[in-house]
Design brief:
By secondary structure, this protein is of the alpha/beta class. It has 12 helices and 8 strands. The chain has a 5-stranded mixed β-sheet with strand order 2-1-5-8-7, with helices on both faces. Bound molecules: zinc ion (2 copies).
Length: about 300
C-alpha cells in the first residue's frame, strides 16, 4: 500500500488542474449551457455511480469532484484559435501492437475531442543523462526519469499551435529514487506530458490487444481532459475518475460520464450526437460492436433532447 500511496501522491501532483478563482456562474450561463444540462441527463442511464474498493483512488484520497456547472464557472483552459492541435509524440522503439495502439489513440482522440490531432513520427530516446536513468536488476529493464522528458525533451519540441503535447514511450518511467515506477506525469503549465506503455503490457506478460488499447486510450483521453482543466470525477465510474492501479483503470468506461461529456461538449463546442456517432464509427471500424452499439444508443438518447 505504501507504493500505492506514493504513486497516488505523484499522480495527484501531476494530475491536479490549477486552482482558479471561480467566476460568477450567472454571468456565463447561456442557452448552450442550459441545453447541455438537459442533454447530459439523457445519458445518465448508461453510467454507473462511483464505487470505491480497498486500495482504489478514492479509498486513499479525498476529492470533491466537479459538476458541469462548476467546470463552466471555473474559467477553464480552453483551446484557442492559435492553440488547438493535440500532438502525440512516440519516443522509443515500439512493437507493432504498440504502434497500432498509438495510431488508434490519435484516431480516437479526434473523435473524442473534435480537435486536430497530429501523430508525429517516432523519435529515438536520445542520450539520457546518467542521473536520469537507472537499471532495475531483477527485471533487467532500463528506467528513465520523467524529468528527462518533461524538462529536457518535450518543452523544446512543443509547437506554437499545440493545445497539448502527449508523449508515449515504451520505456518504464520513475519520478524519483524512492519510487518503483510511475505510469506517467504531466506539467500542465508547459502543456506537456509523458506516459509509458511499459506497465500496460510488460514483456513476458500476456495482455490481450484490446485490453492494452483500452488502457492506452483511457490514459490519453484522461490526461487530455486535465489539459483542459477538467478535474477528477467522483460521481460516476468515469474516464475522468482518478485511478490508483490497473484493475481500477480496467473497470472504468472508455467515455466521459454525463457531467464530463457536457464539459467537453461545451469546451470544444461539440454537438454530443455528432460526438457519439463519430465514436461509434471508430468502434465499428475497429471491430468492437459492443462499444459501437453503446455509443449509438447514447447518440439516440441525446438526439431526442432539444
Ligand atoms: Zn488524473
Ligand atoms: Zn465524469
Amino acid at each position: 500500500m505504501k507504493f500505492a500511496a506514493l504513486l497516488m501522491a505523484l499522480l495527484i501532483a501531476g494530475c491536479n488542474a490549477d486552482d482558479r478563482p471561480a467566476a460568477n456562474a450567472e454571468s456565463t450561463k447561456d442557452e448552450r449551457i442550459e441545453t447541455l444540462e438537459r442533454k447530459k441527463r439523457s445519458v445518465e442511464k448508461f453510467f454507473s455511480p462511483m464505487t470505491v474498493k480497498d486500495g482504489d483512488w478514492l479509498d486513499t484520497q479525498k476529492e470533491a469532484g466537479e459538476t458541469f456547472e462548476e467546470y463552466v464557472a471555473s474559467d477553464p483552459t480552453l483551446p484557442t484559435a492559435e492553440r488547438r492541435t493535440i500532438y502525440i509524440q512516440p519516443i522509443g522503439t515500439f512493437t507493432q501492437d504498440q504502434q497500432r495502439a498509438i495510431s488508434l489513440t490519435a484516431d480516437y482522440m479526434r473523435a473524442f475531442y473534435n480537435l486536430p490531432v497530429k501523430l508525429n513520427a517516432a523519435k529515438p530516446l536520445g542520450n539520457v543523462p546518467k542521473d536520469k536513468q537507472r537499471r532495475i536488476e531483477y527485471r533487467n529493464n532500463l528506467q528513465v526519469k520523467t524529468q528527462y522528458f518533461l524538462d529536457d525533451v518535450l518543452p523544446k519540441m512543443l509547437p506554437k499551435d499545440a493545445a497539448a503535447l502527449i508523449a508515449f514511450t515504451n520505456y518504464d518511467l520513475y519520478p524519483g529514487d524512492t519510487w518503483s515506477f510511475v505510469f506517467g506525469q504531466a506539467t500542465f503549465s508547459e502543456r506537456v506530458s509523458v506516459w509509458s506503455l511499459y506497465q500496460f503490457s510488460r514483456p513476458g506478460q500476456k495482455t490481450d490487444f484490446n485490453q492494452f488499447l483500452d488502457r492506452t486510450l483511457k490514459v490519453a483521453m484522461h490526461e487530455t481532459g486535465h489539459m483542459f482543466s477538467m478535474k477528477h470525477c467522483t460521481k460516476y465510474e468515469c474516464l475522468m475518475s482518478g485511478t490508483n492501479h490497473l484493475a481500477e483503470t480496467d473497470r472504468r468506461p472508455l467515455d466521459n460520464c454525463p457531467e464530463c461529456m457536457a464539459k467537453l461538449a461545451w469546451a470544444m463546442k461539440y454537438d454530443p450526437v455528432e460526438r457519439y456517432q463519430k465514436l461509434s464509427a471508430f468502434w465499428t471500424k475497429n471491430g468492437r460492436q459492443d462499444q459501437a452499439r453503446l455509443m449509438t444508443n447514447k447518440a439516440t438518447a441525446v438526439s431526442g433532447v432539444k
